[in-house]
Write a structure and sequence with these properties.
eight-stranded mixed β-sheet; 233 residues
């Protein structure tokens, strides 16, 4: 038995702009790496697992392009920002070594992993999945993608301003798991494909947001992002 047409339309993830191109980057999946900066793990009272990275996911339809306004999400009183480097996958990768992993990278962008922290904490206490805290509408903000030929992750500064005040600051070299290590490890469990995104973790300084707050995120060498928090949904 098969179907010939959809019963109703469903929203699709936006095409992410690519610097210098008219074409956009279509989104397949969004993977996020947890606790990839030791200082951030410590500020939330977590220990770092240095044996292997761990992941959570966000729905592709939760992605939103920078430059606009996103609603303060429902169900939370503690809505947090997390500035991150994002890796855009442009070639298939399955069970690749760290030495081979960078061949799968299309480019890089600045992103925000938006988090309902109170719900995350409640899920942690009950040893339940984090989906309600991480995977919601407009929970992943992204800027324009810079092709890999023009950027190589190293010790670049990563930072976030909220209402012109510095909230988060670090360097990509502070990451526990490097880009090739993350891609290689993730490819043991998934057939990575063009259109996949990997949010690579956040430095310390995460904190609560309120409607009206304006966020400005940056990674040296990449297109910066801005977003404003609107009224509660």
């Amino acid at each position: 038995m098969s179907a010939s047409r959809p019963l109703f339309p469903v929203p699709s993830a936006p095409l992410v702009p690519i610097l210098g191109l008219d074409e956009g980057f279509p989104i397949h999946r969004i993977f996020c790496v947890g606790r990839n900066y030791a200082a951030h793990a410590a500020e939330l009272g977590n220990t770092v697992d240095r044996v292997a990275p761990f992941y959570f996911t966000k729905p592709p339809t939760g992605l939103v392009l920078e430059g606009g306004t996103i609603a303060y999400p429902p169900g939370t009183q503690d809505y947090h920002h997390e500035i991150e480097l994002v890796i855009a996958i442009g070639a298939p990768a399955f069970r690749v070594s760290a030495d081979e992993a960078m061949g799968a990278v299309y480019g890089y962008a600045v992103g925000l992993d938006m988090t309902r922290r109170d719900l995350q904490n409640a899920m942690k206490e009950k040893q339940r999945p984090w989906d309600v805290a991480k995977a919601f509408e407009d929970s992943a903000v992204i800027g324009a993608i810079t092709p890999a030929a023009a950027f190589e992750p190293g010790a670049q500064r990563i930072s976030l301003l909220v209402n012109d005040g510095l909230r988060q600051e670090g360097h990509l070299s502070d990451m526990i798991w490097s880009a090739p290590e993350m891609i290689s490890h993730l490819s043991r469990y998934y057939h990575l494909t063009p259109g996949d995104l990997i949010f690579t973790g956040t430095p310390s300084g995460v904190g609560a947001l309120q409607p009206g707050d304006r966020l400005e995120g940056a990674v040296e060498g990449l297109s910066p992002i801005t977003v404003t928090i609107g009224p509660a949904a």
